[in-house]
């Protein structure tokens, strides 16, 4: 491993998106970035699909072999609120990274500039405004009727003063080989934008931090019943949700699997932490999953990058 800067200051944003509203979600994100700036963080992390929100529980009119026109209208509305990488709204985030001098990780619904497919994506902006996008390899469950499988941008890594940083989105972390693909690139910080507020997920993220000997940043969001637009065609479905649809649980796990910050539930909050970047290397003394604790003569992972 290369030498790294000793401390990485993180601002982890647990917040409620402005559902189906690209402009307002972007404004809210910029507002949180401005607020976090007061603590001069090195890395600012947002949840999965923060722009324009994760529409938990909606069906968009899909059933086996059938669709509804009302559902198609809601999907088109969501599509229109999704971001095209590199477009004007996207550049607002790049400007924010330049302004803060921080790396910014943002979950967003990506509208392809050429085809008609949406992708569940995460972008990491660098302080000079450059960026890398990661598209979710396999949308989970009924996500597959809204977002497509990644066709590129599988495992991009951002080189930082604190070592390589990468992300897997939500249940991508249940793909063991995808995790190893990141470990093989030497990541010291594993970012997980997600919408998992169940107790099993807390066990998962602690295991991954131990397994990968890296910091795990668990970036979840708050979604309330009131988050959904009142004029959705599928408003009755939204009204059937509990008052708090997604409770959050955002936290940071150290490479020993301990909570550096405890999970935060049921509220919006900026979670601040200082990461001791000596730990990812020190922890590998007895266990390096892709080094001395691997058996490349017996086991081999081949990754087809695009």
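-> sequence recovered:
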């Amino acid at each position: 491993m290369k030498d790294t800067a000793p401390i990485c200051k993180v601002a982890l944003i647990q917040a409620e998106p402005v559902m189906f509203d690209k402009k307002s979600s972007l404004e809210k994100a910029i507002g949180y970035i401005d607020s976090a700036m007061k603590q001069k963080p090195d890395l600012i992390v947002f949840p999965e699909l923060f722009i324009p929100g994760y529409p938990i529980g909606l069906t968009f009119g899909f059933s086996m072999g059938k669709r509804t026109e009302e559902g198609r209208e809601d999907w088109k509305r969501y599509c229109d609120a999704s971001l095209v990488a590199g477009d004007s709204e996207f550049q607002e985030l790049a400007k924010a990274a330049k302004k803060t001098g921080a790396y910014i990780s943002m979950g967003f619904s990506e509208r392809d500039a050429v085809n008609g497919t949406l992708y569940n994506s995460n972008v990491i902006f660098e302080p000079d405004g450059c960026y890398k996008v990661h598209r979710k390899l396999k949308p989970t469950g009924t996500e597959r009727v809204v977002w497509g499988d990644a066709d590129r941008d599988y495992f991009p890594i951002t080189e930082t003063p604190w070592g390589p940083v990468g992300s897997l989105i939500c249940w991508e972390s249940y793909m063991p080989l995808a995790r190893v693909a990141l470990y093989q690139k030497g990541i010291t910080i594993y970012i997980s934008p997600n919408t998992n507020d169940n107790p099993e997920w807390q066990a998962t993220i602690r295991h991954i931090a131990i397994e990968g000997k890296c910091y795990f940043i668990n970036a979840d969001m708050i979604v309330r019943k009131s988050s959904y637009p009142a004029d959705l065609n599928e408003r009755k479905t939204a009204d059937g949700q509990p008052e708090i649809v997604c409770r959050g649980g955002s936290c940071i796990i150290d490479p020993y699997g301990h909570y550096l910050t405890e999970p935060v539930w049921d509220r919006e909050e900026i979670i601040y932490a200082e990461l001791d970047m000596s730990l990812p290397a020190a922890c590998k003394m007895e266990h390096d999953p892709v080094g001395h604790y691997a058996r490349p003569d017996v086991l081999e992972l081949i990754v087809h990058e695009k």
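The chain has one domain: 7-285.
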